[in-house]
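Hi Y.,

Following your request, here is the sequence exactly as I used it, all 346 residues.
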Amino acid sequence: MNLHSIVSVPRPVALLAASAAILLAAPTPSVRADPKTIKISHQFPGGTIDEGDFRDRLVRRFAQEVEKRTNGGLKFEIYPGSSLMKTNAQYSAIRKGALDMCLLPLAYAGGEMPELNMTLMPGLVTSYEQGAKWRTAPVGQELSKLMEDKGVMIVTWIWQAGGMASRTAPVIEPDSAKGLKIRGGSREVDLMFKAAGAAVVNLPSNEIYAGMQTGAIDAAITSSTSLISFRLSEVSKFLATGRGKAYWFMFEPLLMSKSVFDGLSKDQQDAVRAVGLEMEKFALEQAKADDQAVADVYTKAGAKVVDLSDDAVEKWRALARDSAWKDFAGRNASCAHLIQLAQDVK
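Below is the corresponding structure, written out as tokens. Let me know if you'd prefer a different format.
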């Protein structure tokens, strides 16, 4: 063979070919997926992880811990003060997957799903211990299933006691509500106040201050935390607290869109569930602390502060049973079944 007939390959080209062969033979490195950002909305004043309304702090603690446990696979953006969307639009949005998560007084969504009005049923829950039992009791299991079937998951169970702030006179027993314009917060609470002879006004908690300031309402019942965070001590002269005894307990859970949850990896789902459960201890401690703190805040502001007696609570409960409970049970078979299950929780 004539050696001169062999085609020689230039050295740089040969090196490139060898490098390409090595790269093709090497295993392909795994590519880490981009982190998923979860948006959390709520109506309450914003703060920091250590200061401010405990519901905002709970959301921030939840976000921080889930991000840590998923190694940054889940990240969070938090929108307090209804800055992402209007308060009453949140539940519909989360059902449709248009909103990822929210912390919401669940009775606000009673217009979409009447069963949810039970979560602000006056006199039905009268202690934190009783409310905490709902999560594992049949009433809580059925409520959770109803919501999941409609696209919403409960991540953290949060109960809060409430008190009544008023401008003109203390509202202690049903007789003292007669003739007043009162913000109740749900259809069922409104029915009870109507039975007491009051006129009711519908407002989300972040609009109570303006309502009391302008005289649109004389009194408002809301959670101890909201009584503090929305500075209602500036526009009221009397407070009936939820400290120790209350006929008003509201369920304000941290919620997640089921379609969003289903789109997470198994490890991410486990982190969301585990951290959500862990937040319940923090919520209980902070809610009880605010029941005491609200009395201190209003006393310092010069308001007359009164704790409810057992007799006063029982009078409200009897009134609620004959008005709100009866109305709720008559709405449909599902409502009748749920309120019976709730009464079984002692």
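The radius of gyration is 27 Å.

Thanks again,
Q.
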